[in-house]
Amino acid sequence: MDVTFETQKGEKFTIEIGYFDTVLEIKEKIQKYREIPISNQTLIFNGKILEDNGDVSSCVILHNSYMHLIVANHLEKPKSPEKLKIMNEDFHSFSKKIRLFLKLPISNSQHHQRLSIEVDLCDSVAQLKENLYQIEGFPKRPLTLYVKGIIELQDNRHLREYELTDGSEIDILIKPSSVPTPSGMTNTISNTSAKKLKVIVLSKCETKKLIVDVNPMDRVQVLRNELEKLQQKVNFQLPPEGYFFIYNQNVMEEKETFHWHNVRQGDTIDIFNGSVTGGS
Q: What are the Ubiquitin-like domain coordinates in residue numbering (predicted)?
């Protein structure tokens, strides 16, 4: 199987290793093909320094895994565990944070919900999935991530391997909870299981507050629909000439979700008279 290595200088290369190789044997292959002495090699995988007596199985190294290789100068003295830890931290110090936009299919629709999330390019795909599961309202079900619609992101690889940039889009495919997903079947998010957010709505033509329950994964358009339903029930006056929503001093995009706008529990959304024109 193939494993990709990257040095602290950003140099990348791939070497074929055996399923039963030890870490020492991997270093021997690096020495053979890259002429880097074993004594100068430190291998880091999933944030951990690999010991020579470890092996592929115990380290859970898989095909197409991505590993960091710290190459010491041949004049340097061997590093203590404390020094190696600092080197590991230094290696990750040049990591870069970017914001990704994730697209989720909407049930019985050709449209998508969009989420945004800040990630570190040194994170693994598995770490990204774990971060998604922490989002309030996100379904706790197996999911598959795709970049450019066709390239599947593998759990054991790092985000930087996919050449993602700030603003890159990721497609999310969520598997049903009970039955496997045949190829090509559309996956959707179940809004019924999501935890609700309580948001405070204030209108400039009203003095009272209105508390509305919304789903974090709902589009902001849902709030407009809900307010129009409540208008008669609770005697809450909406601007007759039209209105738009403001959150954190920004106009809300009604086609986007509350999570996309980073709306939190108990936050306030203001209603302003008029309409918004132009923009992207």
A: 1-71, 98-175
